[in-house]
UniProtKB/TrEMBL annotation:
InterPro entries: Amidase/PGRP_sf, Amidase_domain. GO terms for molecular function: N-acetylmuramoyl-L-alanine amidase activity. It comes from Streptomyces actuosus. It holds the Pfam family Amidase_2. Residues 23-176 form the N-acetylmuramoyl-L-alanine amidase domain. GO terms for biological process: peptidoglycan catabolic process. This is N-acetylmuramoyl-L-alanine amidase.
């Protein structure tokens, strides 16, 4: 999907979208291929403060350069686009999980990290401390649902193409504070 089609898909789903810098050309494509893309991955940032979070996800940090996702969903439900193409968000994950996402079947337990997820998933980082206590405002949860549904709709995927980082890579806990099963139900209902 082109950057323009990505932006249009999000706006067509009713999202408020902010374009950050030259997001259309900000990527890690020089480190490996981007695509084929098979799904959407949801994360929490373990940060607070919208401006700081967006900047971190755009630029990255020592040892992990940005972009760290494609879109940052802040507490107010705004989607900030920070990259298009390969992004440092998924890392290595389980090839059995990828096969299940492609087949849109129930996910197996992730028990190995042998497959490059940065190549195969759109990533949304969602502003939250990830401590299980930081609230998820309704506007933010609705934006997460809409953003994932927008890409599923554009690609002809079902809600089974949306996973959490914790379902992809052993040891990851994000997103914490709701279940991916609950989010997938909301996405399924939106896609009807």
């Amino acid at each position: 999907m082109s950057a323009s089609a990505f932006l249009d898909a999000l706006r067509d789903e009713g999202l408020t979208v902010v374009e950050v810098g030259d997001w259309r050309h900000h990527n890690r494509n020089h480190k490996g291929p981007w695509g084929p893309v098979h799904g959407v991955m949801i994360h929490h940032t373990a940060t607070e403060g919208a401006a700081r979070t967006v900047e971190l996800c755009r630029k990255g940090y020592t040892g992990l350069p940005g972009p760290l996702c494609h879109g940052v969903i802040t507490k107010d439900g705004t989607v900030h686009l920070v990259g298009h193409g390969r992004a440092n968000h998924a890392g290595l994950g389980d090839d059995d999980v990828l096969r299940a996402v492609i087949a849109e079947k129930a996910l197996p337990h992730d028990n190995e990290a042998n497959t490059d997820g940065n190549r195969h998933f759109y990533g949304f980082e969602c502003e939250n401390l990830g401590d299980g206590q930081d609230p998820w405002p309704p506007a933010q949860l609705a934006a997460m649902e809409k953003a994932a549904a927008a890409l599923c709709r554009r690609h002809g995927w079902t809600e089974r193409s949306v996973i959490g980082h914790l379902e992809w890579q052993p040891g990851k806990v994000d997103p914490r504070g709701f279940t991916m099963a609950w989010l997938r139900e909301r996405i399924r209902d939106r896609l009807k």
